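**User:**
My hope is that you can spare some time for a protein that puzzles me. This is the protein in question:
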Amino acid sequence: MRRRDDEQVRAALRDIPAPGESQAEERGWAVVREAFTEREAIRPPRGVRARAGLAALVAGLVAVVALTPAGAEVREWIADAIEVGEEDARPVLGSLPARGSVLVESNDGAWVLNADGSRRNLGDYSHVTWSPNGLYVGAAEGRELFALTPQGDVRWSLTAPATINSLDWSSDDGFRVAYVAGRELRVVAGDSTPLDEPSVAKRVGSSAIAWRPESLPAAARHELAYVDAQDHRVVLENTDTRQVLWRSEPVPAPVESLQWSADGERLLIEADGFASLVDARGNGLFKGPVATGSAATLAADGRQIAVVRPNRAGKAELVLIPAGLAEVRERVLYPTSPGKGGAAFGTPTFSPDGEWILLPWPEADQWLFLRIADRRVVPVADISRQLDPNRRGSAAFPRVAGWCC
């Protein structure tokens, strides 16, 4: 047979469906759909073992779908699954790259992770916060509010009138704890001494609350920012005198978090994907939002904001943007998340010295420690399992509640 005829025969054979090809393709897609469904429902912890298991699954699927037209789409799905996360991530969360301790909420309760790599489970608490200088931890579960040592010892407790949704310990003299019980905003002394009038607002528009830092703890005024339920304005109130110091312009979306700079001169308001900045008198520093993304955190010095946002390709990136200061330029710190359709990172957290950022990556089950100066990345894998060793829950990704002192 001449070479030209041989090529024509080969081309014709390629166009003829193989016996049972359509049935094989349908069976292959059934396997893929089932595997994908189980993967979404179970969401096993990632890391070295998880990737090995996924590799085994891929090997089996390749044998089924390699010769079908569906193979290209399957291979694209597989590639996306494998590429999520940093390849050389540390398998164990050891020492922190900066001083201080990280407070975490997980399925297995609250944890304190220390700079030297030691860790302690505080108990079954769903909401936690640091006291000034990390001397104590405020914790809540259901209607119960607790003050704990970083070793987990209970110093005092009280029962709230409704389920506690959030809490914050004053960052000046530490002598006030604010908490939202149901929709009511209440305050108690830091030693649990009852106040004459514990209720600050019978109904708030958000569980977001934040004590304003003050430079003179001995003369602390205990000023608390919260969201008014009626007009959806951010309010700053002196909780001792009950004087309202200012109300912001109405916020057009549900407020998710309130964050003060360390000097108490700037307040970051995060609401439904955008963030805006006001000064100590409640005046907006910009027309429109200063940042837009899925999560934002104000640096302690108030000069920069760490923002998680989608880039032009629809992938997530971590960006440092100026907080209204002309001398500070925008910097992309981490641009490589393969997440599609929006940002895939959690809320960034600054280290106490302001030199590092802890960036949670739920989809990859990793924490990324990023050094701001040179963008060095220290990734840690398998975070969910490490903070839920007893498998008490579905290994949901833990939430960072603070990096203190």
